[in-house]
Amino acid sequence: MDLLLLFKSVIMGLVEGLTEFLPISSTGHLILTGDLLNFLDKEKRDVYEIFIQFGAMLAVVWEYRSKISQTLAGAKRPGRERNLLINVAIAFVPAAALGFLFNKMIKASLFHPVPVALAFIIGGFVILWAEKRQHTVTVETVDDLSLMDAFKVGLAQCFALIPGTSRSGATIIGGLFLGLSRKAATEFSFFLAIPTLSAASLYSLWKMRHALVADDIGIFAVGFLASMISAFFAVRALLKFISTHTFIPFAWYRIAFGLLVLLTAWSGAVTWAV
Question: pTM for the complete prediction?
């Protein structure tokens, strides 16, 4: 087994796990990291990224296993558990529908380093705008969300179809604009990630099953574990961070990182596959 390829797989898994639930775009980071590492061919890398994304999602399932089990058990009768389940389902639909219709076109046009860098920068300024405006909290916890709140967060998630935007960033910042507290917006984003990432992963894996071969099991497994473990710590760190901080540091990171990619592309310091 190629040790260098395994090492690259660990790096890719760590990048996915550490960025999936932060408002900085895991897809954007994976595109840039994979390009820098020259990791696998494009078709196989697409399958690999989907697979390790599923690992990151399992970290959320484990972290919220108690809440998830309570919600599923309580969904049999009317109440906040059933409402949360319905809200997640409603929020899931818009991005799932648009992704199914336009995913191929988006991948062909925007899954390249320079468009990703531009999305990083624009997203950074959106976060700054969201944090600088007057934030009136009308939804304190995820259990307080209305059906319309959930649908609007689902619409916000549609922006995440643009690589470099960030699924968690779109849903969290969208939630802030809608009056959710930072904790409610972040936790609902985590819950929404479960059906969103599961559906995207299973659908894409089935569609691209022809690219899977037995020889890749080790590479995929290493990336999956690295993603799941790093995502677990990233989720806990983010929840602790938002209890005393705003999302402004993530905004400046996005802007700086996006500018760095554009600068290296313009100067020729890095030959990005644009």
Answer: 0.85
Q: What is the pLDDT at residue 122?
A: 95
* Residue in the block written with tokens 């995913």: 103
How is the chain split into domains, by residue range? 3-267
The set of long-range contacts for 268-272, using a CB threshold of 8 Å and a minimum separation of 24, is 270/36, 272/32, 272/35, 272/112, 272/113, 272/114
For 205-252, the three-class secondary structure string (H helix, E strand, C coil) is HHHCHHHCCHHHHHHHHHHHHHHHHHHHHHHHHHHHHHCCCCCHHHHH
Alpha-helical (H) ranges within the chain are 3-19, 26-37, 42-63, 65-74, 80-110, 113-132, 147-157, 167-177, 182-207, 217-242, 248-267
DSSP state letters, 180-204: B-HHHHHHHHHHHHHHHHHHHHHHH
- Any idea which of 40-44, 50-54, 184-188 has the lowest mean pLDDT? 40-44
